[in-house]
């Protein structure tokens, strides 16, 4: 099978990349201080329009809703565990690699809360700030926490994977962190989170579909419920960017273009099990081959966001903003062309295979 890395070329045009705000500010703080007021003024809107997208705890699913109940008598608990193991027995090894990669990505949640708290104007200044922005971030984190917990426990009980190597990968990943080059800038940051939440929605949705096809309806429900959370979160971040486009059109448009020029890197791109130095690209290649998350999905997400944010019809942009608009609106098509060419090349290359420590060093075709 062919190998198509998700890290495809950035399609960077020769013209200089537009910068947000004052070019003398550090790349680490590209939000001009006067723009902080915009985020302050949006607080009532966040409280009314974004916080209701969260689910109260007593209405939220919990991992224990999907897992064997350990408070039952031992034989009943053992029977439920056996049922889970029987269902997971037929999952193919390549599918498990992708499921583990997704689980590890979810389990590095501390990195993502830290990351969102880098954004100027919206970060949680105290750790328990009453600001609606901070309230959202903490509650979002609390909802997300269930994803890694549920997938991890399922995988542990299945007996199909090497938990020690998975746990080492998680520890290394959290220690490495991530830097999607959003410069502490909330315009760029919310573009990144919009894209990412949709990417995880697509990915968990596809692992749900494949679990069902492989005869594991329990795992299909698990991945499906996680995908539905991602969809709700995607909706929140998309609405935030939509609002930014309304109140500060050119800056928001430039931020979208800037992030797309840099390419949206996956949050777990620094994953490392201490053995495979290209672990993330190998996991991505298997995800691509199984159709869980592909270069085509990347283009689809971009196209979806362009439509959802009505970028083609944006008015009132500066010249620089119009340039950014033109670049972003034509990008999905250019990615697809590039993808076709890389498919052509890949067809001529012999299939590669790779050992994955997560599944006891079994070899998987990339
Ligand atoms: Fe998640
Ligand atoms: Fe998420």
Quick recap:
The chain has 366 residues and is mainly alpha-helical. The chain has 13 helices and 2 strands. Helix 8 packs across helix 10 (249-262).
Describe the protein's topology.
Elements: H1 36-41, H2 43-50, H3 74-88, H4 93-107, H5 109-116, H6 132-158, H7 163-176, H8 186-213, H9 217-247, H10 249-262, H11 279-290, H12 295-308, H13 319-348, E1 353-356, E2 362-365
Antiparallel strand pairs: 1-2
Helix pairs in contact: 4-6, 4-7, 4-8, 4-11, 5-6, 6-9, 8-9, 8-10, 8-12, 9-10, 10-13, 12-13
The structure holds fe (ii) ion (2 copies).
One fe (ii) ion binds at residues 106, 144, 147, 200, 230.
Quick tags:
iron; Fatty_acid_desaturase-2; 366 residues; two-stranded antiparallel ribbon; fatty acid biosynthesis; mainly alpha; 13 helices; EC 1.14.19.-; binds fe (ii) ion; 61% helix
Task: Please explain how this structure is put together.
This protein is mostly helical. It has 13 helices and 2 strands, in the order αααααααααααααββ. Strands 1-2 form a two-stranded antiparallel ribbon. Strand 1 (353-356) and strand 2 (362-365) form a beta hairpin. It is globular and about 65 Å long. It starts with 35 loop residues before the first helix and ends with a strand. The chain binds fe (ii) ion (2 copies). One fe (ii) ion binds next to helix 6.
